[in-house]
Every structure is written in C-alpha cells, then in structure tokens.
Specification:
There is one protein chain. This protein has one domain: Transcription Elongation Factor S-II, Chain A. The chain is built from five helices and no strands. It has helices spanning 4-31, 37-60, 75-98, 102-109, 116-138. Helix 1 (4-31) packs parallel to helix 3 (75-98). The protein starts with a helix and ends with a helix.
C-alpha cells in the first residue's frame, strides 16, 4: 500500500524527468533546422504530461486524499511506474543523439532516433498516461 504523500513524491520525480526531457527536445529542435512534426508532437505531449502531473501532485497533497492508500497493483501505481520506465528509455535514446561532442554530435543530431512507428507508439503511450493521470485528478468521492 502506498499513501498519497509517497505517491506525490513519485509523481514529483516523474514530473522532473518529464521537464528534463522537454528541455532536451526543445534544445534539439533549436539545433536541427526543419525539425519534423513528430518531434514537435512529442514535445507537446511531454508538456501536457508535465501539466497533468503538476495537477495530480497537488491533488495527492490535498486533505481530501489524506488517509487513503493505494494498492501497489492499482492502475495509478502501475501507470506511474510504466510512465517512469517509458520516460527513462526515451531519455536514454535521446542521450545517444545529444550527449556526444564535436562532429559526431552534429552527425547524430541530423537523425531523429525514432522511426515513424516508434514515434507513434510513444505518442500513444504518453496519451494513455496523460488520460489515466487526468482521470485520477477528476475522481470525486474521496
């Protein structure tokens, strides 16, 4: 069982990761002229994810939720863990493109590290997490 404050701490970590990735993608878009729509779509989703995570974090810290607990097998716990794993993998892939120096960075920055199908799947996954987290904020009856 996880209490709301522990969940809020996990959400805060996820929010931090989401914001870091948004910054990396923003920097990438500035570096690469003519960045594709897929990159902009990913940036938009990460910004939406960050916004809903802020709302969920605030919600979990309210008095209404205190005293409740979440089973580790709950959809919310699963979504937090799965989203964190997805964002870590995204960060690793982006790091391959953005962390090198000199000529290899220039060459690697010309190619987005995701093919079209991977990008679409990533966007669908992020949309799903955004929906779950948003739904969690809107639940009445705590």
């Amino acid at each position: 069982m996880a209490d709301p404050l522990s969940m809020a701490a996990g959400i805060a970590g996820l929010l931090s990761l989401s914001l870091q990735l948004t910054k990396v993608i923003s920097d990438y878009m500035i570096t690469v002229s003519g960045a594709s729509k897929a990159i902009g779509d990913l940036q938009d989703r990460l910004q939406a994810l960050s916004q809903v995570l802020r709302q969920l974090n605030a919600f979990l810290r309210t008095a209404n939720v205190q005293g409740n607990s979440f089973d580790q097998s709950s959809v919310l716990c699963y979504a937090i863990n799965a989203c964190q794993e997805k964002l870590h993998r995204l960060g690793e892939r982006l790091d391959q493109v953005t962390s090198k120096n000199g000529l290899s960075r220039v060459i690697n920055s010309l190619k987005w590290p995701f093919v079209d199908n991977e990008n679409k799947e990533l966007l669908r996954n992020l949309d799903g997490y955004i929906e779950i987290f948003h739904f969690s904020v809107t639940i009445d009856g705590w």
